[in-house]
Amino acid sequence: MATDSVERGISLLYVEDEPDTREMFSAIIARRYPELRILVAEDGESGFVAFRQNLPQIVVTDINMPVTDGLKMATEIKSLRPHTEIIALTAYANTQQLMRAIEIGISHYILKPIDIHQIFAVLDKVLSIVRAEQEIARQNELIRSLNDDLARKAADLEMANSELEAFNYTVAHDLRSPMVSISGFAQVLLEMHAAALNDEGKKCLRIIHREVLRMSNLIGVLLKFSLYSRKRVEKSWSDLSGMANEIKNSLLQQQPGCRVVFSIAEGVKGFCDPELLRIVLENLFGNALKYSMKKEDAHIEFGMINKEDDLIYFVRDNGIGFDQQDADKLFIPFQRLESDREIAGFGIGLATASRIIQRHGGKIWAEGEKGMGATFYFSL
């Protein structure tokens, strides 16, 4: 919504006790500035009444008037609307009056007889100030309105995300119990009633058992994704080099005979939630190993780049790579590239890493080329 002054345009109140001067001056100003709304009053008392009723942005007033003089009226106006532009006119060069006018905050002090060109010059300057203030008011109101809209949308989005994450957690948790029961009964049939089943029946039960385990693993992944999306981020300076070495050793223990060479930079630290950042590195290292371990000269590298005082971390491999135009798809939950179809996974690991990095206030992105490997970068 615009301010009142913006809605009304610009008004000028002219206060003068001499009728002919009041009429002539008003006519000249109206011709020169047709966009102005001209208000008139015959003394300080009626002038202040007119001011309170109309709240003009500009006041031009004589000083020496009966009942209430111009300086007294100006004092009352400034107490009511401090930003009002006031121009004082007087027939006497009175130092005491001038000092008082300055103390009140009167913009300009002009001696009579009035030079109309001087009046025009002063009014041009004052109008430029008023218009600038109106534009600032418009912009401030627009900014307030946009900020209010942004705050509402952010609150709505946060609520929707919270509800979605709670829904994911509830669904995944509630699905796990029947999955466990189905798996258990299938296992019982295979182990205790195998004699009553023919080969086709046993095959069907093994398929049931295998797919239930796969579904159970998927539910576990969903639960972790929901948990990591909701966990409070508690940052501290952490040894990422040490963390990367621990993850490397764990991966190599799980893959006996794996000949992948790891290069981990020393002394890499990051201001992060160490528990959540470990999940990021586990996913990035696991992803790199999965897509490069079949190469004879497989190599995985972890390090850091200081770019324009911004710390950029990376995990690089020389595996199968990907088409760069598909880079953004990598971080979408359950989105897998065509080249991934033969490799096990649910397509949630990189999405989890992306969510965690976002919650740190950082960014994650990938660069790659088919057959030439991939590099995943992130900042915190």
Summarize the structure.
The protein is of the alpha/beta class and 380 residues long. The chain has ten helices and twelve strands. The strands form three sheets. It has a five-stranded parallel beta sheet, with helices on both faces. A five-stranded mixed beta sheet has the order 7-9-10-12-11. The protein has a two-stranded antiparallel sheet with strand order 6-8.
Please describe what this structure looks like.
54% of the residues lie in helices and 18% in strands. It is α/β, with parallel strands linked by helices and 380 residues long. The strands form three sheets. Strands 2-1-3-4-5 form a five-stranded parallel sheet, with helices on both faces. Strands 7-9-10-12-11 form a five-stranded mixed sheet. A two-stranded antiparallel ribbon has the order 6-8. A hairpin with a 3-residue loop joins β11 and β12. The protein starts with a helix and ends with a strand.
